[in-house]
Each structure stands twice: as structure tokens, then as C-alpha cells.
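seq:
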Amino acid sequence: MAVLGQATSTLYTPPTSARPTQYPLWRTRLLWGLTAALGVGIFAMLYMVFFYAGTEINQGHVQRIFYIHVSAYAGGAVVFLITVIAGALYLYTRKAKWDRLALSSVEVGLPLMIVTLVTGSVWARPIWNVWWTADPRLNAMGVMVLLYLAYLVLRGAMDDPDRRARFAAVYGMLAFISVVYVYLIPRIRTDTLHPEVTTGGVQNPMASGGFQFQGDNLMGTTVSVAMIWFCTFAVVLLWHRVRLQNRIEALREREAALMDD
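struct:
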């Protein structure tokens, strides 16, 4: 028995920091409740996009891409803003959890912006008769996607954790300028063909593909529901991604502790 007790006492016990994070039960229930609601909500949102909203008189059914196009951008912009906030908090506190949040938010926001880019190209083919043109907003959107792709590539090229986190924090804050610029282009420039249909403002009178939905309750309700769904989806997906990243970091710390032993 003494030998057994001695052997048991030598078993490895992972350090507290290497153990999986324990979350309050109410948070987990809230997360999965929101996930389930989004799963149901996507069918309601798609029904509104394809059946509830009326058919635009000039563009026809291709205009329905607008609801996905704009809403995906809104969701991506929300999580990219979280990248900025998390980066600033990391620089202030030097806590790794903020760096994990910043990384996760880029990984969630980038696919949403690619959806925006692809749906815009699909819409442009029948409306502008081209998949892509050298337009200020389209070019700015392409540059924005490349900037955030570079964020992930450059992070992966750095070995020192603190240096990587500091660089990523500053980079993520500066990259958000491109998100704001893409939003402002059709509102402040008159040399873009991209229409502005949500808020009005300065616009090229030659912009092609514009339409008005402010006076159409069905269209207005549909775009509102789609934006709420995509923004909520982005935040919930980010929540799941952060939890996954926490588990990955805990496993890395545990592996490092085992290697030291």
C-alpha cells in the first residue's frame, strides 16, 4: 500500500493554467441557446429573402443577393471592430486572452468579407455585365481582404508570442481603416459605380444597379432581419472560436509541461 501511495503521488498533475477553462453553466447554456436560435433563424431569414420581400422592378430576382451581400459585410465589420478593441486591450494589459480574441475575430470576419466579395461579383455580372471592374470600392474591398489575409500569414511567421501579439494588435487596429473606407466610398466619392441604397449621401449619378427600399416595408424588414442574423451569427461563431482557441492553448501548455518533465 505504501508503494502504491508513493507511485500515485508521482503521477503528473497539470498546472492550473494548462487545465481546460471552466465556464459558468449559464454562459454555456446561453451560447448554445443562441446557436440553436440562429439555426432556426436562418430558415426564417432565407424565406424572407427569397419569398417575403418583393421582386425589384428593374433588377429582378438578382437584387435579392443584396440582402446577403450587405448583411455579410455588416457581420464582418462587427467582428473586425472587436479585433480593434481586443488589440487595444492586449496592448494595455498584456493578457493573452485578448490576443486570442483578436485572432479569433479575424478568422471569423475574413470569411464573411469574402462572402461579401463573391456575392457582389455575382450581382455585378448581370447588372454591370462584368464580374469585376477597376472601381474604387471594389478595389478597396479586395485590398481589405488581402490585408486581413496578411494578418494571419504574418502572425504565423513570428515565433515569439509577445512580439507576435503586439504586432498583431497594432496591425489589426490599422487594418480596420480599410473597413471604414470601404463603407464610406459610395457616400463620399463620386467616381464609383457602386450604388448606395441604405443611407443615401454623395453618389455618382452614373452609378448602376441602385434601388430604393426605404419606402418598401417588405424590403426594409428583410434587410433588417438579415443584418441582425448575420451580426448575431458573427458574434456567436466568434464565441465558439474563442472557446476552441482556449482549449488549444491549454493543450499546448500541457504538452510543454510534459516535455519539461
